[in-house]
Write a structure and sequence with these properties.
Helix content: 40-55%
Oligomer: single chain
Number of strands: 6
Largest sheet: 3 strands, mixed
Strand order of the largest sheet: 1-2-3
Number of helices: 9
Order of helices and strands: HEHEEHHHHHEHEEH
Protein name: CBS domain-containing protein
Keywords: CBS domain
Shape: globular
Pfam family, one: CBS
Number of domains: 1
CATH class: Alpha Beta
Domain CBS: 95-147
CATH superfamily: CBS-domain
Strand content: 15-25%
Distance between the termini: 11 Å
Structural class: alpha/beta
Radius of gyration: 17 Å
Amino acid sequence: MRARDLLEDFPTVGLDTPVLEAAGLLAEQDLPGLIVVDADGAPYTILPGTQVLRLAVPRYCQDDPALARVVDEAHADRFMRVLDDRTVREALPRERRELPVADPDATVLELAALMARTHSPVVAVVAEGRLLGAVTLQALMDRLVST
């Protein structure tokens, strides 16, 4: 089985897309992450949903989870509001990581190795500089455990 056999249409966002819009796509479509494209439409990086949370959750709560418990429920339910004027660019990690991109002929082992190495739940599939879609961790795992 090859990447082209597991390929799915997949939504993309740009670097200047509002991060709340990206979060909405993640939630509405039950996605593990999004493909971020540059101005030319080429894959730039993968935005995992956890990075959106990392931008929204106050640093003090990330550093000391016990502090999250002292925030009252009404405020805790609204912590995503800090993202109102933020962009996808701001949600990305400061250091650029290896871009999880594969060609349509990549095997499931190649895809699995790429996901494991890059810690990405999504691999962009590209041919001749054009984004064809993506292979998700879910699709890959479904295939691997059914064989």
